[in-house]
Amino acid sequence: AYGNHELYNFPRTELAEKLNIPFQIEQTNELVGYYGYLLEEPLHSSETSMKIRFLILDSYDICLLDRCSETSRKHKAAHEILLEKNPNYPQNCNSPENLEGVPRRFVGFGGAVDLPQLEWLEDSLRQARDRGERVVICSHQPIHPDSTFPTCLIWNYEDVLSLIRRYSDVVIASFSGHAHKGGYVRDEASGVHFRCFDAMLESPPPIRTYAIVDVFDDRMLVRGEGRCKSDSYDFDHMDFLPEEEFLHDNL
């Protein structure tokens, strides 16, 4: 899940090669880097086999970074969002000064998820439900407003969060980065785990910060190193459909 630091140094065409990101060209003739990956194999010594689909979002779909200011529709959309939401723009576009709470997310080093990607996400979640798959969503920017600092949220996080809540019987967790000091919240509305992992660059040598995630039939174990905390996340919220989805599916 590439982010702003990658875009400070490389265009998307080079990131596709260096990071093996399967960018696609939308009708706007612009590169976007969202995709899915299915892991289907026996877990540890369990007799059952869990199918886990990773959905990697491109939170720099609509953004200023590496989008042409003259020809890019997505750059124009980002420009209009920041012009409306951030009084410091364009002179000091990365400053959240005079913004309070979640509106502090409207800064130049952030971005949003465009409509075609939202449609792909919903379709992918629907297919995962039909196929009996469990889903982990990965994104550079965090999605839940209580998981970390508001300056780091996806600009239209509400749209993404709403979809996750509708498919909480499918989604195990959402993993992200971007907020260097990390964070965690379990969404009260859905039970989905939202974990923002600590950045390795915040750890002075010889500290090495990273995590390994082990997946079992009923839980995920995060084995943190350095400044990354270990934790265990159960799947209890996946034992039932949300009432509105149950009613919808049985009408």
Give average pLDDT, whole number.
Answer: 92
Instruction: Please count the beta strands (DSSP E, at least 2 residues each).
Output: 11
- Count of folded domains: 1
CATH H-level superfamily title: Metallo-dependent phosphatases
What characteristic shape results from the CA principal axes?
Answer: globular
Enumerate the spans where pLDDT stays under 50 for 5 or more consecutive residues: 241-251
Quickly give the structural class. Answer: alpha/beta
The H-and-E topology, N to C, reads as HHEEEEHHEHEEEEEEH
Number of helices: 6
Q: For this structure, what is the CATH class?
A: Alpha Beta
Question: What is the C-alpha radius of gyration, as a whole number of Å?
Answer: 18 Å
The largest β sheet comes out as: 6 strands, mixed
State which percent range the strand residues make up.
15-25%
First and last CA, distance:
38 Å
CATH architecture type: 4-Layer Sandwich
Strand ordering within the main sheet: 3-4-5-6-8-7
GO molecular function: 2',3'-cyclic-nucleotide 2'-phosphodiesterase activity; ADP-ribose diphosphatase activity; CDP-glycerol diphosphatase activity; manganese ion binding
InterPro entries: Metallo-depent_PP-like (IPR029052)
Organism: Thalassiosira oceanica
Protein name: Calcineurin-like phosphoesterase domain-containing protein
